[in-house]
Amino acid sequence: MAGPGVDTLFSPASVAIVGASRDPKKFGNVILKNFMLSFKGRIYPVNPNVGEIMGLKCYPKASAIKGRVDLAVIIVPSEIALETVEDCGVKGVKSLVIITSGFSETGATDKEKELGSIIKKYKMRAVGPNCLGVLDTYSGVDTIFNPQYKLNRPAKGPISFVSQSGALGAAVLDWAHSELVGMSKFVSYGNGIDLRESDLIDYLGTDETTKAIALYLEGLVDGKKFIDVCSRISRKKPIVALKAGKSEAGSKAAMSHTGSLAGSAKVFSGVFRQCGVIEVNDVDELFDYSRILAYQKPLAGNRIAVVTNGGGFGVLAADAIEEEGMKLAVFSAEAEKLLREALPDRVNVRNPLDLVGDADTKRYKDALDIIAKESGVDCILVILLMQVSTLGSDVIDAITEIYKDRKKPVIACSAGGNFTQLHMHALEKEGIPAYPTPKKAVKAAGALWQYGKIKNKI
Description:
By secondary structure, this protein is of the alpha/beta class. The chain contains 16 helices and 19 strands. The chain has two domains: 7-294, Rossmann fold, CATH 3.40.50.261; 297-457, 3-Layer(aba) Sandwich (Rossmann fold), CATH 3.40.50.261.
């Protein structure tokens, strides 16, 4: 288990910002402002050179604070980081986010070992050093040192993201906001002096707001622990991983980035398979898969029904389904009979089901209602070309209603501009993930099938 103290990283009642600053360009100012904007608990700025910052009383050191301190965010120069952490231990601080760099990633391994000894001595839990830290959209903890006007924070949601890279994590958070992908927690753990990926996955496995775990990984220190933790957590929640440093050049870059040994790509892929982790190839896939796994139940099989108002998109979907090793579902004779009765004569009632270009909401509703009852259909891919005049916004309500009534996994696909995106976001809010191309949608369905096989194997 991740152990005591980890809760206070994400849901502290009080926080000390050690290295708080009046200078808006300094990280200590940005992080203090973040907490003042979103955090509901007690906030204690720590800086021996000033009496107050942003209207809050400032303390010379953490041990001078009279109230309880659950979490301390350390943003001081590396030269005084050890004594600062020691002072936090004396104070009784339970957990630390150490933003400060200048440790093993620069070759200062002895200094990092000494820091680790202090943390262990006082039984504190720590993220970092050399990290971006923690974001919890539910508690308001936000140690990210990028200003909010430059890096938007995502809304509350079911995905938690653990990243060995702060810069990549920051970019993904900004992207998630723009794509309306909701997130619960984000952790950039940097050098991982105490808490690393395995500890954080273990914790997130019991977190009620986390439905899927996304992981960016450059290397592992304890492979056995990773396998043990992921084998246990993947039974309850899907874990999706992007492994970087697969090439020789990438492996060397990972070593200089976080001091992490990257290891063989084939070995990591084997480890992921062994412990039920779904591996992806890029950041797009990381969140394409995480979204669908967070929203939808695993597939019992690989039979996909496609319903579209654009024949070409149906053909592309059929190609992608075959490429992914899945199958186009075969409709039963009874379903084909009902579809013929409900739809115009010019509609071919085979799969992919092309409702043709003048399809309206009723046509979609009638077709989906029949297909959703089919036992031979494991998942429905609904393709919507919203640009046609016959299709109204109420198609979103129709799809949502059938999804909730029939409890069969539904994925959407639609390509287009602002009008289209508005409607796809409406589907996302109802738990139906939407993708811009048939290939992306089908690959996401493949992740649901893969997780279904993982669950069945377990």
